[in-house]
Amino acid sequence: MSNSSSMPQFLLLAFADRRELQLLHFWLFLAISLAALLANGLILSAVACDHHLHTPMGFFLLNLSLTDLGSICTTVPKAMHNSLQNTTTISYMGCAAQLFFFAFFMSAEFSLLTIMCYDRYVAICKPLHYGTLLGSRACAHMAAAAWATGFLTALLHTANTFSLPLCQGNALGQFFCEIPHILKLSCSHSGYLREIGLIEVGVCLVFCCFIFIVFSYVQIFRAVLRIPSQQGRHKAFSTCLPHLAVVSLFLSTGIFSDLKPPSISSPSLDLALSVLYSVVPPALNPLIYSLRNQELKDALRKMMNEEELERV
User: Fold this and answer.
1) 278-289 as b/e, with b when 16 or more CB fall inside 10 Å?
2) Model confidence pLDDT, tens digit, residues 67-122
3) Which of 75, 76, 159, 257 is the most buried (most CB within 10 A)?
4) What are phi and psi of 10, to 5 degrees?
5) Is 228 exposed, middle or buried (0-12, 13-18, 19+ CB in 10 A)?
């Protein structure tokens, strides 16, 4: 069995066999996706409309919200459709598109998180050089590099994965199309090794970014602890802790899902973990940032007050 000519569709992992539980998953996913759309939409509107947020961090936060919206719109709608229609199928081309866009948004998001760490490092450790190192042109170039990295990564992985001949059936052990589960269906040893090589290169790049983030935050916390005033330390921490929390959520869920011991692996646990790293972060990221960022809270409050006055 080879490619799309003989593999018209894949079978995704169902959330439940009982109809009542399928509908429960539909409503749960609907609530999470609406919360993510609303929260990220509010952040996009606040950053675009409030000039106080026209800063490098606001610009990168806007891009991060776009990746969150993209990632949740890639995986959740098909899962909701399948739960509502009591089916598990996805077309070959639909699976390829889902894999491409998920890899694209996830890669771009991690690149943006790394850039945002650099922004915090320069702002706290090299404040006199902030305007020079993070001017509008530099920010635009870094954001473009993050999106280009995501696109190139997704293109390479999708092209290689879907060029493999598939001969191990068409059932994926995941509720959306993901590279490791498609590789399990492959019967091409050389193609499999080629994709594993691409994954290892990606892991090395992620590890390098992780080391950079750790090193940056060590320097940041050392600089913050040297700030004499308690108010200054509080302000510095309030701009760094949301980013650190988002990075921790992004990495911890993904790493645990990939590196968990086989002894504790089960379909239900794998399904829960996949929801945790693919669906939950896009809904939580805006909340994490809005709780600690006073300027963002003020902008959201101002925007809501203006809407209320317009209604009156």
Assistant:
1) bbebbbbbbebb
2) 999 999 999 999 999 888 888 899 989 999 999 999 999 999 999 999 999 998 99
3) 75
4) -115, 160
5) exposed
